[in-house]
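**User:** Here is a favour to ask of a fellow structure person. Please take any protein you like and set down a full record of it. No explanation is needed for now; the record alone will do.

**Assistant:**
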Amino acid sequence: MAYPKQHLIALGFRDDYFGIEVKHLDPGEGFSQKASRALWQTVSYTDSEFFVQGTRARLKFAVLFSGMSFEKEVKLLNHLGQTFENDWALWHGLRQLANHANVGTLEIKGDRDAWTGWKIAFAGGRYFTRSHFDKECSYRLSNPRMVEKNRIGSF
C-alpha cells in the first residue's frame, strides 16, 4: 500500500491509499503465465480490505511495477522465447482487462540508469505523470476519471 505525498494531492492525485505490486517478468522465459498471474494478483488488491491504523481501507486503484515498466523491456517481447506466442499482444490484452478493475502500470521514462520521470498509466490512458529535465520537476494530473470509475457487469 502507498499513500500520496501532500504535494501530489495538492496537484489532484487522489487523496487515498493505492496499491503497488512489484514483480519480475522475464520477456524471454515464461512471460505469458507470469504476466497474467502478476496482473491478477494486482487486481485482487483492489477487491481486498486492509486495516490501516485501526481503520478499514479499500484501495481505489493499484499498479504493477515490473520490467515491463521500462520501454526497452517491452520491446523485447516477441524477440525472445517462444516463436509461437505473441507476448506483446497478450501484454496489451491483459492490461486492457486489468484496466476494468482499476489496475494500471507504474512506468519509468528513460533508461534504468538515466530515468527522466514516471507515469501511472492504464490501458485507457494516463493518470498522473512526473517529468524532470535538468534539475526541474513537473507533475501533471492527466485524467482523474482513470481511478474514479467503478465498472460493474457489462459496460
The helical segments are 6-10, 31-46, 71-74, 87-99, 145-148.
